[in-house]
């Protein structure tokens, strides 16, 4: 068998970050901390922003659910931020169409909970009405007006102005009774798959009614919700409760809205219509449907952080799972978990950064240092075999499928690697029920290359 030739990985041209650490573990142990994750719909999710930053920055574990890789999602529109950069605004800016989408999502959640259309309309109108920016002084806002006006594209000056709270655009003014009724029903709870967040009123006397509605919603849906429900206080739950309280707090956004105004009101009707320009203004409103960026860990990454590094604790509900329970649960969720984790553990312990290789039809992709610095060098297929390289292969490859897979890998400037995990013949199934079985597993790597007859013939002629 020919010896494989190692090819150096391709470095990425534009790198805007520094390399911190291969693992989220402090060598000295002084600042060591245990991150917390939870299992939701057979996925391992990290919600604490500090844990997300540590796990991804130190080792590039996981992926942001709303981002390509690094969890950097923001609701703010970058084009609008650039457009209004002279207004000294430190709040998210979104377009009116995007804000309407959030309203529709919140409306659908309320309708699923049994509210009629009239109640839904009152709740959303009352909750999303314009808010004066002085109301946000406690939140750290610096503005003194409740909206910003900007002229059409031909106007160069951007100015801030205070508008009266009665200028609500298309929002219908509600009577105090209707407002109280709307606040009492303003707890939006739904399926965590949609990531809705409870919306609570700002008046202290209405907190009791909101908690009752939240508790009813919790009992109705039967899952962990982002609301102010009464839970049993314990030291293990304080961190999660702090995260939920931050998520329960209302989010304020600036919505860019358009209105038509006449530059020449004294002219004729035809001439006035020609001079109608669109005025753009930023109106501060509450976001009725908040979206959070979570870090999603693959099962192999999550188990490596728990078993190999000991820096992660995974909860199911309110109960932390042990290593043996995680090994059992992950094996049920993913039948080939044991095989793929053994390969992941092997490569990760040797300095590579393995990521899921589903995009290229393989089990793993191997990066040197991390995805921000290099392109993936190898696409890995893991197989569990016996001493004679025989066994029930998960992916029996024919010559046709192997050729297609190899061509796909080569076109992406990678190499195809077959990773055989050799299991001793005397190993029983009982031993495979614990991760300690990896101590007896041997690994054999095989790199598949495409032999080109014409190229080989030319190289022989040169010799």
Q: Overview of this structure, please?
A:
By secondary structure, this protein is α+β, with helices and mostly antiparallel strands. About 30% of the residues lie in helices and about 20% in strands. The protein contains 13 helices and 16 strands. It has a six-stranded mixed beta sheet, covered by helices on one side. Strands 4-7-8-5-6 form a five-stranded mixed beta sheet. The protein has a five-stranded mixed beta sheet with strand order 12-13-14-15-16. A hairpin with an 8-residue loop joins strand 5 (about 145-150) and strand 6. The chain is globular and about 80 Å long. The model is unreliable at about 135-145 and about 150-235 (pLDDT under 50).
């Amino acid at each position: 068998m020919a010896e494989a030739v190692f090819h150096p990985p391709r470095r990425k041209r534009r790198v805007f970050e520094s390399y911190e650490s291969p693992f989220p573990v402090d060598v000295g142990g002084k600042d060591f901390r245990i991150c917390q994750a939870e299992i939701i719909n057979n996925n391992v999710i990290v919600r604490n922003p500090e844990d997300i930053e540590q796990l991804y920055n130190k080792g590039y574990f996981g992926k942001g659910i709303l981002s390509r890789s690094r969890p950097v999602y923001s609701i703010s529109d970058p084009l609008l931020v650039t457009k209004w950069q002279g207004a000294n605004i430190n709040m998210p800016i979104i377009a009116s169409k995007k804000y309407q989408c959030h309203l529709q999502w919140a409306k659908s959640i309320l309708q699923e909970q049994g509210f009629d259309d009239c109640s839904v309309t009152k709740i959303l109108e009352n909750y999303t009405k314009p808010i004066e920016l002085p109301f946000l002084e406690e939140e750290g806002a610096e503005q003194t007006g409740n909206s910003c006006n900007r002229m059409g594209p031909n106007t160069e000056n951007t100015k801030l102005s205070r508008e009266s709270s009665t200028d609500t655009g298309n929002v219908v003014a509600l009577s105090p009774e209707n407002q109280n009724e709307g606040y009492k029903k303003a707890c939006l709870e739904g399926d965590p798959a949609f990531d809705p967040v409870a919306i609570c009123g700002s008046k202290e006397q209405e907190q009791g009614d909101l908690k009752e509605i939240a508790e009813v919603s919790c009992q109705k849906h039967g899952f962990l919700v982002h609301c102010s429900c009464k839970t049993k206080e314990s030291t293990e739950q304080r961190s999660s409760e702090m995260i939920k309280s931050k998520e329960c707090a209302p989010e304020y956004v600036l919505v860019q809205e358009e209105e038509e105004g006449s530059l020449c009101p004294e002219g004729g009707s035809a001439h006035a219509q020609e001079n109608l320009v669109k005025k753009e203004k930023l109106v501060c409103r509450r976001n009725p449907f908040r979206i959070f960026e979570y870090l999603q860990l693959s099962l192999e990454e999550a188990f490596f952080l728990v078993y190999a590094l000991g820096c992660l604790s995974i909860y199911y509900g309110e109960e932390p799972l042990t290593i043996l329970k995680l090994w059992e649960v992950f094996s049920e969720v993913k039948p080939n978990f044991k095989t793929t984790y053994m390969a992941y553990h092997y490569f990760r312990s040797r300095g590579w950064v393995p990521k899921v290789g589903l995009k290229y039809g393989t089990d793993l992709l191997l990066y040197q240092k991390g995805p921000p610095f290099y392109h993936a060098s190898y696409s890995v297929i893991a197989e569990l075999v016996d001493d004679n390289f025989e066994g029930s292969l998960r992916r029996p490859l024919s010559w046709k499928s192997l050729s297609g897979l190899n061509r796909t890998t080569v076109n992406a400037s990678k190499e195809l690697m077959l990773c055989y995990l050799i299991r001793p013949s005397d190993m029983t199934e009982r031993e495979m029920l614990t991760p300690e079985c990896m101590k007896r597993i041997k690994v054999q790597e095989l790199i598949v290359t495409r032999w080109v007859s014409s190229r080989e013939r030319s190289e022989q002629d040169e010799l």
